[in-house]
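Journal club side-thread
Mid-discussion, someone asked how the predicted structure for our own chain would compare to the paper's figures. Pasting it here so we can look after the session.
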Amino acid sequence: MKRAVTLALCLLFSAGAAHASSGRFCDRSQELTAAEQDRLLRFAAVLRDELAASEENVALVSRSGLDLSRFNIRYSHAALAWRSEPGLWSARQLYYACDEHRPRIYDQGLAGFALGTDDPKLGYLSIVHLPPQAVFSLQPDTPRSLHLLAAQYSANAYAYSLRYQNCNQWLIEMLAAGWGSLADGEDLRERAQGWLRNAGYAPEPVEVGSRFWMLASYFVPLLHLDDHPDEDRAALKLHISLPTTIESFVRARFPQSERVELCHDEKQIVIHRGWTPIAEGCKPADGDRVISLAD
């Protein structure tokens, strides 16, 4: 796959000033040291073990990407993890294919999913284990996945527009199609968004905080504002589908869902169970499991 963006940078606000074109963004690469690669592969192995411990074959997974802490965002990219056969898990997700200039659907191994981070020294993963009644209608369906794929990508896509789409928006529309038992068809995205509105899906606004970041849309081809309502642009608050918003919606709809958060720094991996977040800097709390990376 040539320069396919698996979107650790699904949300692109802070990259706007650094990357003046989609070409420069697509050419970005990161050389990992042997120690960094080993750390991330061990991190991916913990993710695999946590998924394997579940009796269900589908889960939600999210990862951190660029540092978006200025927007109070830890997770930028979500995917649907599914077990196609015993011991074999993949992450089905939307990515932006730079050479084709369009979004695509990609089934990626868990190691590649974990490696798609911008900071090999500090990373976070979130897993939401779904109850059986939530999993039943979510088995990956390739035709329906493709009918939910928009023709144009926008990293900051408005959650209720058909003009663009980002990775998290595709995922929540996949959940809507499954949980709403929506028939396949060319208008599936429109019906999925209608189902989400009726189900009370309401993404919390991302407070941009400065018109400087709004101006990034004029210089970065992967950012757009023309799908957002005028009142949102004026208020500098954009309603965008994010992993945390999706998790909150899932928790409200299926309270039996269970969450596991993983993080690593240069010394350890922390496994934290529950809906409260791990402390910044990957600091373990009482009851968390800690795996040393010095072994």
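Post-session note: The chain has one domain: 4-292.
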